[in-house]
Amino acid sequence: MMMDKRLIHMLKADKKYIAGNILLQWISLLANITFIFSVAAFLQMLYEGEFRTEVWLRLIITAVEAVAVRFFCARGSAKMSYLSSKNVRKTLRQNIYRKLLKLGMSYQEKVSSAETVQMAVEGVDQLETYFGAYLPQFFYSLLAPVTLFVTLAFVNVRSAVILLICVPLIPAAIAGVQTFAKKLLSKYWGQYTSLGDHFLENLQGLTTLKIYQADEARNQEMNQEAEKFRKITMKVLTMQLNSITIMDLVAYGGAALGILISVRQFQAGNVNLAGALAIILLAAEFFIPMRQLGSFFHIAMNGMAASDRIFKLLEIKEAEQKEVCDFPKKGCCISARHLYFTYDGEREILKDISFDIPEGSFTAVVGESGSGKSTIASILMGRNHVQQGTLKAGDCNYDRIREEELMKQITYVGHNSYLFRGTVRENLLMGNHQASQEEMWEVLDRMRLSGFLRAEQGLDTMLTENGSNFSGGQRQRLALARALLHNSPVYIFDEASSNIDAESEDDILQQIYSLARTKTVLMITHRLSNVKNADWIYVMQKGKIAEQGCHEQLLGQNGVYADLWETQQDLENYGRSVQQWKKEVV
Ligand SMILES: Nc1ncnc2c1ncn2[C@@H]1O[C@H](COP(=O)(O)OP(=O)(O)OP(=O)(O)O)[C@@H](O)[C@H]1O
């Protein structure tokens, strides 16, 4: 019958709406029975020529009352359905949201963002139909034939028994289709999500595709995929239509059989005209609820598949709640000993890493691309957790520090900080919601953004999604202004001055250096000249710390750092001489 105990338990509050829905549908059925018996009795009266005013008046009033009851029951049942689906949506989305909050920044270690969004939006919508329509219909389709059987058994037992026997043929037909449908639907969903993924990717990369004139080839690929999807959609529709045809055959065939038998019984004199008419008019009612259940069946199957995925998320184990420990306010040195880390459980990204970031120091992590520098930042921000080793802030183990506490104490600025659609003021207030206007202008001044913004609408200048109406350099300077307002004791800059114009890069570097005089700063960069003045430099190579020391010591070691330094200096000197040459030529 497709029911998940966990789901029913979680949505206990919905039981009353489902029960109310079933009850109202059942009362509506009783009203329908009353209506049909009144009409049949009226016709019997006409047939017999016995025409008593008080009787036909009473019959007409009963019929009208029955219609009125049906009307109110139909409205009530629709309302119950709405209330239960509203509650399902709210409860499930709240539970998913709370779970994500409990999993914290590291939720992506367990589930992808795309899957989470799909579950919270589409998955929940499917379950809403399951609760609002399928479940009440399931119980009603069991109750209705029994009620009709009991009623019609008083009129003619044989017809009632035959009608009742035919009803289970519909669920039998549904069960027959189920095995085939399950496989087909899972294939259908696979192709649907893959087509969606490719469509989104191509749309996001459309400019690149145009630049390399690769859009035509991608278009062909998409067409092929869309054709495959069309074919499988047709298969699903054919399967659904076929199963509906089978159910219709059973439903209307059964009703026809019931009608035939009631006519024979009438001919044989075993039932009067009113009784035969009541059986004829009510025969279809035996099958309609079950037939309706069959239509909801495919939605329910999708709902069940969605609930499996939702429970997989809700049942993810959260990190054990250890005794909470605050990030030390004074004398805090972040220290790591023998850290090992892997993203996928196979490839080791960090191998036996040990480092110290003393309070008030300017520490740097450098190294070639892919050596694991950003992974260190990610671990320090609590986005990922190490599998081995100890990581401490003062005497406090990292896994005992609450996430909000960590976010308050450490500010992270990456090379591509996110800016939100809205005003500059709104974006700045995210860094510190109590910041005054003067404080905001002060950080904008420091980041040399105030001139540009004053020429626009000042703090009310609007940003589009991810600040795409600002230049790369302006975006990054605004992100740094927001970070400065956050005013935390520790700052991590991960390639924060990369990929922007030289002027913005210089402004950002100057601010980082000045911040390093009063705060603890960790700077991750591939450009060694940016961290020449750092107190301590860690040089990463293939997930290990290959060398460490201050700039002069590292140059003296004539190792990885010295080689990198030399290569970068050669490149920078070459760049400078090309620029000089250009100036002379011009
Ligand atoms: N989310 C992730 N899932 C799986 N592997 C990842 C993930 N992020 C990074 N990696 C892998 O971990 C390794 C280290 O990546 P990391 O970003 O830490 O290097 P990096 O030194 O900061 O490089 P770069 O200077 O190019 O930014 C890389 O080989 C990368 O492929």
TrEMBL record:
Gene3D superfamilies: ABC transporter type 1, transmembrane domain (1.20.1560.10), P-loop containing nucleotide triphosphate hydrolases (3.40.50.300). Residues 334-567 form the ABC transporter domain. The chain crosses the membrane at residues 21-43, 138-155, 161-181, 241-263, 269-288. SMART domains: AAA. Keywords: ATP-binding, Membrane, Nucleotide-binding, Transmembrane, Transmembrane helix. The keyword Nucleotide-binding applies. It is a multi-pass membrane protein. Coiled coil: none annotated. It is found in: Cell membrane. InterPro entries: AAA+_ATPase (IPR003593), ABC1_TM_dom (IPR011527), ABC1_TM_sf (IPR036640), ABC_transporter-like_ATP-bd (IPR003439), ABC_transporter-like_CS (IPR017871), P-loop_NTPase (IPR027417), Type_1_exporter (IPR039421). One of its GO terms (molecular function) is ATP binding. This is ABC transporter ATP-binding protein/permease. The lineage of its organism: Bacteria, Bacillati, Bacillota, Clostridia, Lachnospirales.
